[in-house]
Amino acid sequence: MKKIGIDARLYYQTGVGTYLQNLLFYLDKNKFKNEVYYIYLRKQDAKKIRFKSKYIIKRIADQKWHSFSEQIGFLTLLLKDNLDLMHFTYFSYPIFYWRKFMVTIHDTTPLLFKTGKASTKNPFIYQIKHFLFKVVLRLQVNRAVEIITPTNTVKNELIKIYGSRISKKIHPIYEGVSYKLFQSKENNNLGNKFRNFFIYVGNFYPHKNVENLLKAFSKLKTKSSLILIGPDDYFSRKIKLNKKILLFKNPPLSNLIFFYKNAKAIIHPSLSEGFGLPLIEAASFGTPIIASNIEVFKELWDGQYLSFNPNDVNDIVKKISIFIEKKTKFSYESILKKFSFEKMTSSTLKIYHKVTQNS
Length: 359
Fold this sequence. Notes:
Elements: E1 2-7, H1 16-27, E2 35-41, H2 43-46, E3 56-60, H3 68-81, E4 85-88, E5 101-104, H4 109-112, H5 123-143, E6 147-149, H6 152-162, E7 170-172, H7 179-183, E8 197-201, H8 210-219, E9 225-230, E10 245-249, H9 253-262, E11 266-268, H10 277-284, E12 289-292, H11 295-301, E13 306-308, H12 313-326, H13 333-336, H14 341-357
Keywords: Glycosyltransferase, Transferase
Protein name: Mannosyltransferase B
GO biological process, one term: lipopolysaccharide biosynthetic process
């Protein structure tokens, strides 16, 4: 029996968590013959997660990412389990792990922008941490036997940074709409309270460029409101709200579905993305997309969205105004066929099998 490990310590985190939840959900639907899967989870997460397959085994890895214990404790656990292949699903990993591994690199944003808590740190501390991050990522890219990216754009960015020699081991695999969204129902009661609105869905890190969206919306001549939907954190608390700008923190999926289905459009002003899950989710409900003219969105949406220059507030105003005036519509039916977490899992399994057959 081949032993394959999957790092799922970020199972309940935003972004990577959605990727993990769907990868493991569809993995659990497969029939296994010659392999067993070790799923590495934080202790508090493992209690909430159940797998039907006897070939999927939960392993407690209570060492947090970006920590010293990850480098020692998690490394020791992995070596003890003697895996044929380990799948690291995030750039933080035990750098002295010498056995065969593959990695999912979701984006190159941390190389280009201050993200998350990094942007709140002392500049000197940030520089040190950013240097260490670059070292860890370079080691991971060089040592991984295979690399998964969510788009061709991320693949091309990695090749540009690390060279063409890594090209053959990079596999762009599109993601999709979370199974949890399919299983949830819309909260229709919100219809009595909210009408005539645009939405932004995501976190509020600096590279998300929400500040320019707020500047644009303050200049916009419209009776519509803008509803910001995201986490309750340091960044969301800094947002200045008014009658036109509303903030919903951590809404349940039933509320999120209402906002997707009833919004005039979703607006996404990001400066950098690896994929952009909220846009896929919105499009699945037929919600029009107004978003940055960055390469990844051009790749995914093939012109079926209204684009703007994210660095130009006046252009954001102009494009939203055009949308309101012309009532622009897009057809997403054919595009959405290429986005699927189930297909993503199937493609990932093929890589697992290819690597382990050669071991």
